[in-house]
Amino acid sequence: MVPLSYYLALSGILFACGVTGFLIKRNIITIFMSIELMLNGVNLSFVAFAAHWHALSGQIFVFFVMVVAAAEAGVGLAIIIAVYRTRETLNVDRVNLLKL
Amino acid sequence: MTPKLHLWLIPVLPLIGAALNGLFGRRFSRQTVAAVALAFCGAAFVLGLWAAALFSFSSLPVPHLESLATWIRAGSFQVDFAFYLDQLSLVMLLVVTGVGFLIHIYSVGYMWQEGGFYRFFSYLNLFMFFMLTLVLANNYLMMFIGWEGVGLASYLLIGFWFTKDSAASAGKKAFIVNRVGDFGFLIALLLLIKHFGSLNFEQVFQSASKMPAEAAEAGLLTAIGLLLMLGAAGKSAQIPLYVWLPDAMEGPTPVSALIHAATMVTAGVYMVARSHVIFDRAPMALMVVAIIGTLTALFAATIGVAQTDIKKVLAYSTISQLGYMFMACGVAAYSAGIFHLMTHAFFKGLLFLAAGSVIHAIGGEQDVRRMGGLKEHIPWTFWTMTMATFAIAGFPPFAGFVSKDAILCRVYSSPYGSSVYWAIGVFTALLTSFYMFRLWFLTFFGQYRGERSGDHGGAHAQPGADAPPEHGHGGIHESPKVMLIPLVILAVLSVAGGWVGSARFEKFLSPVFHARAPASNAEQAAARETRAREHKEEGASEALLTGVSIGAAALGLYLAWLLYHRRPQLPQQIAHALGGFYYAVANKYYVDELYAILFAKPLVDGSTRILWQSIDQDVIDATLDNSADGARHVSDSLRHMQSGNLRSYAGWIAFGAAAVIAYMIWMGTR
User: Fold this and answer.
1) Residue B648 burial by Cβ neighbours in a 10 Å radius (0-12, 13-18, 19+)
2) In whole angstroms, what is the distance from residue B98 CA to residue B89 CA?
3) Does the ipTM surpass 0.85?
4) pTM for the complete prediction?
5) Mutation to test the A interface, candidates B645, B649, B661, B665, most A Cβ within 10 Å
6) Which of B22, B209, B237, B430 is the most buried (most CB within 10 A)?
7) Has residue B580 got a pLDDT over 90?
């Protein structure tokens, strides 16, 4: 049986990859994918813990996260298309209208 | 069974009048305003007369007490809305309503051309309400309400022509100087509550009468007495708080007559007389009252000699006469003081009304140097004013003679008295006679020194002149009947008011003043009796005292005649010869300037530099400004975090999360 720490290490690596991608990439779609990577990193630690403690709540939580991620992907892609239509770019550094 | 007098109606009636005129007067015609004011004030007078009639003819048991409702109840301490009628308050009631009613009538004529007619009568009725509350109160707290209320009415009426700067500041001055006195009165009330647990006259005097007289050492009663005297000095314009009264002459003349001569300023005398139980047992406080009264009488009389404004002369004479009343109270001759209060209300009210009539006649001129020769032009005013002048100067058989003589006699013979008071009193009588006749000669005799009647209309336009500013009339003219009738009635009273005799008056008031005389006083009274008998045996003594005071009055008349009628150039030379002293007197001994340097300037400077510039600007404002500035600077720098750059936000979030995790790990490993 694979020890828990392996799973957690993999989960941490996945999450760190996601964060790094989120911070250094400029393309919105890449950033979006990085977010999915982070979510899945977290999911992995959930299921690992659930299996380790023999508790179902962790597994169920993962389903919730997946549902939310799917919904988010739907909404997020719609927003990306809308942004591209108006700004004609997907570079986040040029999508900075939030500034006052 | 005691008849129900409904005493509460007496003060409340003028209050209704004040409310009606104050709320709806703007829409009333002048006739309606005058009718409302006169009706409610007159009704109070009639009720007062009815009370007096019941008292005299159906032997109303006095003191008569009517309680309306409980006002304050805290533990055993209770204050009621209750009214108290005894001989003393009956005298005051009749004087206030009677003279007040006459002055209301006069005001209708005097103020007819003025703007704010309804406002004037509303204030005047309001004053009557508060004054009657003061007089009829059953406890010190209600008296205090009346006391403050008359101060308010006085302030409103002094500043009646509030667009005039001098009138507005005179009102403020009166109010502020009175605050100093009221401060003393209030502390006296608190002391009474603390030590007697009541403010009710009956209870306080009952408890106080059980206390021994504080002959040698000054104790509680002395403290209360001195504080009450401080209050009285403020309201009744005694040294050191007299400075507001001369300035109060900025108000309309009927106001000067009613409030600043006949009634309100005598409230202090009434209060001291009412508190006689306390003063009787505090000889030191009595002595202070007598000394203040004597000094004020002399001091104000000397200033009066050199004043040129007709109303200012009368104002200083009022202060001086009030000094006489305090002198009488200070030697425990309260009834003599109240007697003088009554006659003074008649003749000084008359003097002011007559002066108002003179001012009215020559179109707003108040400077006696620009009057003269008015005798033929305004005979009614002349004759009534003559009565009053003779009365105040103390010529027999006028009212002022009887009461002033009573005071001087008692000052000499009372166990608290001394010949020094008497000597100063007589000298003051000489001065009084002198400055009053000076005024009389300057106003009515000689040549008219004002502008000739042809171009006399110009005098009207003088800003600040106390008279109806625009009423077209040609030349010097007599006042209308509505003004003359009160003059005549008051003239009759000035002549005959004293005929009741001081002895009979004293007997009338004796239930008030002798019921609770301290034991030692009773002995002293007995001693006084024997002394009086000795006096009678000596025979000449009392007659001599009277003779001296008449002589002083006659000498004053002669000097005034000599200086201001016979040789009008002499006063100038005398003034030159006196030099600095004359200027000191003419400038009221620079007391106003002294007070300005001693009190007003430090206060203003202190407020400006310390309170305003140091505390308000440098501390309070600075704290607020600096904290706002600081917040703005911090926000200015923090603003740059809001870059709109998605990745920088993400970086901050990541950084924050990392910081939280680091903290948790650090906490966990500790």
Assistant:
1) middle
2) 14
3) no
4) 0.79
5) B645
6) B237
7) no
